[in-house]
Amino acid sequence: MKNTATLFLTFLFSLSMLAEVSNAEKDALVKLYESTNGSQWTVKWDLSSPVSNWYGIKLQDDKVVSINLTNNNLVGEIPAAIGNLVYLQELNTHRNKISGTIPSAIGNLKALKVLNLSFNKLAGIIPSSICKLSNLKDLELYMNGLSGELPMQIGALKQLEILSLFNNEFIGQIPNSIYEITTLKTLLLNSNMLTGGLSSDVVNMTSLENLSLFDNKMNGQVPFELEKLNNLKEMNISYNMFNGIVSKDLAALDTLNMTMVNHQGIAVLLDIATDKNSSVVAED
C-alpha cells in the first residue's frame, strides 16, 4: 500500500512538471524579456527552464497571473505581445528604465487588477484602451514622461481604488467621468500641467482618503463640497491658481494651507471664511 501511494505521488509530481503555460503566453514573456534587454536584468530568466521558475512570474492553473519585475534593470520597451497574457492580474515594472509608449494592446488584459508602470521613462499618452480594464483596482503611472490629456472614459474603471499619475506632463482638464469612480481612495495628480477647475461633483467620491492636485495650473473656486468627504484624511491642492474663499477646516486639511499662485506668479494664501455661514454665502 505504501509503495502504491509513493508511485501515485510520483505520478502527480511528474504531471506537475510537465504542466506548462500556453505557447502564446510563453512567447509574450520571451518578447518582454528580449525587448527590455533581459540579458542585462539584475535577475535574469533562464529561458530553457520552466516558466514557473522564472523570476517575478506567478502562475495559477498553468496561466500567467502576475509579473512583478520591480527594480530589475529593464531597459527598452513594452512589446505589444503583452496583450496576449489574457489571464494576467498584476503587471508591475516599477522603478526600471522602460521607455517608449504604453501599448494599446494592454487593453486586452481584462483580468488585470494592478497596473504599475511607475518610475520609468515612458512617453506618449495613456491609451484609451486602459479604460476597458473593468477589474482594475490600482493604476500607477507616476514618475514618467507621459503627456496629453487624461482619457475621457477613465470613469469606466468602476472598481479603481488607486489612481497615481503624479510627476508627468499631462495637460487639459480632469475628465468629468473621474468623479463617477466612487471606489477611489487615492487620487494623485500632482506635478503635471492640468488646467480648469475642480468640479463640485467631487462630492460623489465618497471613498476618497487622499487627494493631491499640488503644482498644476488649475483655477476657479475650491468646491466647498470637499468638506462633505468624510473619509478624506490628506489633501494638497496648493500651488495652483484656485481663488475665492475657503473654510477654515479645508485650509487646515490642505498640507500647505491653500497656498496658491496668482497671475503674477506670487504665492498667496486664499482667504479663510470667518464663520460657518461664509461658505454658504460664497456658494450663493
UniProtKB/TrEMBL annotation:
Chief localisation class: membrane
The Disease resistance R13L4/SHOC-2-like LRR domain, residue ranges: 111-251
A GO CC annotation given for this chain: plasma membrane
Protein's UniProt keywords contain Lipid metabolism: no
Name of a matching Pfam family: LRR_1
Keyword Cytoplasm: no
SUPFAM superfamilies documented for this protein: L domain-like
Signal peptide region: 1-19
Highest taxon of source: Bacteria
Location of this chain's protein in the cell: Cell membrane; Endomembrane system; Membrane
Swiss-Prot/TrEMBL keywords: Cell membrane, Glycoprotein, Leucine-rich repeat, Membrane, Receptor, Repeat, Signal, Transmembrane, Transmembrane helix
Membrane disposition: Single-pass membrane protein; Single-pass type I membrane protein
Designated name of the protein: Two component regulator three Y domain protein
Organism the protein comes from: Flavobacterium caseinilyticum
